[in-house]
Design a protein that fits this description.
By secondary structure, the chain is mainly α. Helices cover 63% and strands 11% of the residues. The chain contains 8 helices and 3 strands. A 3-stranded antiparallel beta sheet has the order 1-3-2. β2 and β3 form a beta hairpin. It starts with 5 loop residues before the first helix and ends in a 15-residue tail after the last helix. The C terminus is likely disordered.
Length: 158
């Protein structure tokens, strides 16, 4: 088998392609890791956000975590069946549900989070600690909406 020579050149020319392929690699690694933990990536993200910010609507979870609304419903259904979250009518908006993490959900989150450092070390082994921090910073910049970036379109409005 010959050593690949084209893709590294393509990735250097097209950061979008490189990012898509890297994203697929990391997503697969994340799902494989999650399967060993018995808690899906989306489920863990929901528990983590609820633990950090408190009760919120499924719509807010969906928007903040960038999980499709229809997927969020099944994520919350599964978490509720496992007694990791509680859904109650939102007293401020009776059309929505407030999702709240339970004590069991907090415990399950702590267990899952304990395995994250080893997973990250294995997944990002090709990068030094400084490169990982730099990658995180750069990806964070890409995830800020264009209008909210310094010097972005919103910055030029008067």
């Amino acid at each position: 088998m010959t050593k690949p020579t084209y893709f590294p050149r393509l990735a250097a020319e097209r950061p979008d392609i490189a990012l898509c392929r890297a994203s697929t690699f990391v997503a697969r690694a994340g799902e494989t890791h999650a399967a060993t933990q018995g808690l899906g990536v989306g489920q863990q993200l929901v528990l983590k956000m609820l633990d950090a910010v408190g009760a919120c609507s499924q719509q807010t979870l969906s928007e903040e975590l960038r999980i499709d609304r229809s997927v969020m419903v099944s994520v919350c259904d599964d978490l509720e069946k496992s007694d990791f979250v509680r859904r109650e009518r939102n007293p401020r908006d009776r059309r929505s549900y407030a999702v709240t993490i339970t004590d069991m959900g907090r415990e399950r989150l702590r267990e899952a989070e304990a395995a994250i450092p080893a997973y990250l070390d294995a997944t990002f082994a090709a990068l030094t600690a400084a490169e990982r921090r730099q990658l995180t910073t750069l990806l964070g910049k890409l995830l800020v909406p264009a209008g909210a970036r310094p010097g972005g379109p919103a910055a030029h409005r008067t």
